[in-house]
Write a structure and sequence with these properties.
Shape: globular
Strand order of the largest sheet: 1-2-3-5-6-7-8-9
Oligomer: single chain
Radius of gyration: 17 Å
Distance between the termini: 41 Å
Structural class: alpha/beta
Helix content: 25-40%
Largest sheet: 8 strands, mixed, barrel
């Protein structure tokens, strides 16, 4: 069986499990909850997508999104703002683009690339590190993320994902600063009416957040988007996350990165994701 067929089978199985056994996976992102109905984003008014998605640095044109309806993907990650965003121009992204792709069947995963950890590994993120007041900066950037979402016509109740590139979680002072920033960002995004999600490497930021969860830390992300490449897509077998954490409908696995695919005559280089999580709510 080819890789694409394996992925299609995995998605079909996941969708069936979500529909029939939605309460099977227990736990929560914010604390050690019991997996009751109140922990399900659906019960909180969120819109959840289950299936395959992709993200790419520059928002694709509407023509490209139409062409890629030939793919198995039905969710798209778009970079809506943040001082650390690599592709700042985003000439295609706007309220009209959001409405148009949503109308033809795409689910939108908004990503906000804010300030980065002081011990971030990537050289090109060293100029946008968190300052000496991480909580206040997190709150400020959380407000900016909500304003960016609102400017695109995204409604309250939808998700916004904070992109925190891989960092040295074992540097205690740096980890404390990073966690304070993330918590401040989460609290403000929630106060603004959105669900705060978190994207990072599975062996870095994601593992750090789960350690904080086990210690009873509050103001943690509602949704976990973990990057572990070159492995089969799997939402609930990620070794960096406890099996009862960030469920139900609270996980995205980015299982492949920088892959080039072509659909409808349009080639794009993307990262590939398996999704069972809240998406943007479009006006």
């Amino acid at each position: 069986m080819g890789q694409r067929k394996i992925i299609q089978y995995a998605v079909a199985l996941l969708m069936a499990l979500s529909a029939l056994l939605g309460g099977l996976f227990t736990g929560s992102a914010a604390a050690a909850k019991d997996g009751s109905d109140e922990d399900d984003p659906l019960s909180q008014g969120a819109e959840v997508f289950t299936g395959l998605g992709f993200d790419t640095c520059e928002t694709p044109s509407l023509g490209a999104m139409n062409a890629w309806l030939e793919s198995d993907y039905r969710a798209v990650g778009v970079y809506i703002g943040g001082r650390g965003r690599a592709c700042k121009g985003q000439v295609n992204l706007g309220p009209r683009w959001i409405r148009s792709v949503h109308q033809i069947g795409w689910n939108v995963l908004p990503l906000y690339v804010g300030s980065q950890s002081p011990c971030v590994y990537s050289d090109n993120k060293q100029q946008v590190i968190i300052d000496e007041e991480p909580w206040a900066q997190g709150v400020e950037e959380g407000r900016d993320a909500a304003l960016s979402a609102d400017g695109l016509g995204l409604r309250e109740g939808g998700a916004i994902y904070l992109d925190m590139e891989a960092y040295d979680q074992y540097d205690e002072a740096c980890a404390e600063t990073t966690l304070s920033f993330v918590r401040g960002w989460n609290r403000e995004v929630r106060r603004q009416g959105f669900l705060p999600g978190f994207y990072s490497s599975s062996t870095s930021g994601v593992q750090h957040m789960d350690t904080a969860r086990q210690l009873g830390v509050t103001d943690l992300p509602d949704v976990m988007w973990f990057a572990r490449w070159n492995v089969p897509p799997s939402l609930y077998e990620e070794p960096s996350l406890a099996g009862d954490a960030w469920t139900p409908h609270r996980r995205i696995h980015q299982y492949a990165g920088n892959i080039t695919e072509e659909y409808g005559g349009v080639r794009m280089t993307v990262d590939a994701n398996m999704v069972d999580a809240p998406v943007a709510i479009v006006e």
